[in-house]
Amino acid sequence: MNSEQDRAQVVVRLDGVRKEYGDSAALDGVSLEIRAGEAVAVMGPSGCGKSTLLNMVAGLDRPTAGSVVVHGEDLGTLSETGLALYRRRRVGMVFQFFNLIDDLSALDNVALAAQLTGSPARQARRRALELLDELGIAGRRNAYPAALSGGERQRVAVARALMNRPAVLLADEPTGALDSRAGEQVMDLLIDLNQIGQTLLMVTHDPQLATRCASRLIEFADGKVVRESALERTA
Known about the structure:
Elements (H helix, E strand, L loop, with lengths): L2 H7 E12 L2 E12 L3 E5 L6 H9 L6 E6 L2 E2 L5 H10 L1 E4 L11 H10 L5 H14 L15 H13 L5 E5 L7 H16 L4 E4 L3 H7 L2 E6 L2 E7 L5
Parallel strand pairs: 3-8, 3-9, 6-7, 7-8
Antiparallel strand pairs: 1-2, 1-4, 4-5, 9-10
């Protein structure tokens, strides 16, 4: 494979990324690559820089030094408006506590992601319904978040994250607020998404999530990558 083809396969590249908050460094010279179709889990103790890494890739925070390139776009060159457009179009984000809008139905929560990028409402709702159907939750499309179980809410959140066909799906403790059965269902969903080609970057404290869903594990400590290893998915 030549270097041009090689570059084309890299979806996320961090090069010497440092992030300082006051006198402390949340990230200290982090360099890593994530290729198209990979499922990468990031683990490490609380405060080691995992969430800061996710915020960098999401364009929610800027590095003090180094560069973050996602899908060929150097985030350091983008204005705040450019970063907002990038977040809507290039990345999907799934959070521990779902972050759904309480006074919108499941369908409207999902459709909103496309409408924010300028898609007509009818077109957005059609794709939202397709995604809810694919994720096995179309029957709950008119329910509001308060009426949904934790597992259902996370499925709605995943559907919303997938609305704009993101280059990479970012998941921050995606099973952290779920009971074990709902957590298993969300893990199965992440595996299925990755198997059809969705690139995943997951931050988790849960070794089971990493070993079941990821093909590669990156371990963090004190703002640095201390170990990388390939994973064989468990059943």
